[in-house]
Amino acid sequence: MSQPTSLERTRHMSTDGKVDRRTLLRVALAAPAVGALASCAKPVVEKSAPAPTLGAKVDGSKPLEFFNFDGGYGKKWTEMPLDLYRKEFPQAAVKLTSGQELKQQLQPRFIQGTPPDLIENVGLDGASLVAKKQLYDLGPLLEMESFDQPGVKVKDTLLPGVAEAGRYDGVKYEMPYVFGVGGIWYSQPLLDKHGWTYPKHWDEMIALCAEIKKAGLAPWTYQGKFPGYLANPLLMTAYKAAGPELKKKIDNLEPNAWRDPAIIQAAEGYQELASKGYLLEGTQALSHTQSQTYWAQGKAVFIPCGGWLENELGTIAPKDFGMTMAPVPGWSKDDKAPYETVTGGPGGALIVPAQAKNPLGGLELLRIMLSKQCMQNFAKLTNSPVVVKGGTDGVPMSSAAASMQKAVNEAGTNMFSDWQFRLWYQKLLTNFESSVGVLMSGDQTPDEWSKQMQKYADETAKDPSIKKYHV
Fold first, then answer.
1. Which residues of 47-68 are buried (b: 16+ CB within 10 A; e: fewer)?
2. pTM score of the predicted model
3. Co-location of 424 and 355 in the same domain
4. Fewest beta carbons less than 10 Å away: which of 146, 236, 368, 427?
5. CA–CA dist 256, 457 (Å, integer)
6. Three-state DSSP class for 67?
7. What confidence score (pLDDT) does residue 135 get?
8. Would you say residue 8 lies in a domain?
9. Residue 48 CB partners (closer than 8 Å, separation 6+)
10. Are residues 265 and 253 in the same domain?
11. Concatenated DSSP letters of 324-356
């Protein structure tokens, strides 16, 4: 199962380095027949230049390997694009490999110069791979013809922001495949039953937690073994109090950014959930699947997670559960950013290694995956939104999907993709997420935690071996 870091990738991430995907809507579009549109596609070209362009042809005799992250989305969605590739190149030996420990499984292959041709990256340090020139420039793909929409370029089939996502110094190395948003989840029927209203500010949240506890329920749980799930809500509460400048300072590794009063007070607020007994007993020892299962069984009212939650739970949640997501509460009515602010947008990262044996084949498979038929199939199988236009038109949505769509609509221009430091600086991200676990255990005061986080950020800023980026 997936171990997220953000919602955007969406990079869902956990303390063991696994990244979370960022998902959003439940979609149920019926996909067209696999072969129906394949004949109109023109394969990618190969020529002497390193970047493929329209007109050059993939060597159909070369083997092709796709590495799939076997997490919340599973692997069934890969069958259609792989079958379409096989139909286009009957002589190619097409191989699907998968797993959850990408660092252990793929880092040795990058070192040996034998990486797969296309990777669903959930766990590898993308920024480090870019800095080491290990990734293929995907920019030319945007100018290619869509696989199943003749005469239409790939870039013109994508939702706003998708073509711009996954860039480092302006070069596109990662292709998102889902559209996500993250927040706090609860059962709307449960709140209705008790006459409770979802809180918009932290003092309201704490007051409601007291009522919930009196009613004999645990107010909160979270994925205790993977405190990265709680890291994003903490940051969002601080962001709403301080405004966009806080994000800019933290992403740019500015001195004392983590010492901002908004960060410290948000840490105080979330630590209060533990100190006042508002967490489900044993939460910090729970895995993501355990905590989510207990939540779906009604043993806790609130849980933080990304949009893949419904799909990952499967049939565990009762049909009448009324799964609902809402934005993270702000701090107070004096916040500088509105309550409706959420992190969301294009998420996930499909990458083509520069040293792959068949990089043009990997690029062609990626072009196939971005076809409308494959994206609709992905949406149908994973209950997730996709990055192509029209992917959810006229689709009946579950309560979970409807609540996420509502959050996106109400956020409007107050939605941002992610905290960039999470994408740029893997070690800092890992330290941040593990530090949230220390904070919630009470082993550090919020002020001590803030100082520790600033130390981690300063170490990153001063490390000459780490390439720096700025917003």
1. eeeeebeeeeebeeebebbbbb
2. 0.71
3. no
4. 427
5. 9
6. strand
7. 96
8. no
9. none
10. yes
11. EEEPPPBS-TT-SS-TT-EEEEEE--EE-BTT-
* CATH code (residue 94): 3.40.190.10
Tell me: do 108 and 124 sit in the same domain.
yes
pLDDT of residue 380: 79
DSSP state of 280: P
**Chain mean pLDDT for the chain:** 86
17: in domain:
no
At CB < 8 A and 24+ separation, what contacts does 51-58 make? 51/137, 51/139, 51/140, 52/140, 52/141, 52/144, 52/360, 52/363, 53/140, 53/143, 53/144, 54/143, 54/144, 54/145, 56/360, 58/89, 58/358, 58/360, 58/361, 58/364
Q: How confident is the model at residue 31 (pLDDT cuts 50, 70, 90)?
A: very low
Same domain, 424 and 313: yes
- Tell me the Cα Rg of the chain: 22
Task: Note whether 253 and 142 are same-domain residues.
Answer: no
Is the pLDDT reported for residue 240 higher than 90? yes
Burial 374-400 (b: 16+ CB within 10 A, else e): bbbbbbbbbbbbbbbbebbeebebbbb
Q: Provide the pLDDT for residue 339.
A: 98
β-pair partners for 178? 347, 386
For residue range 33-73, list pLDDT tens digits in order.
222 223 344 444 433 334 444 334 799 999 999 999 988 78
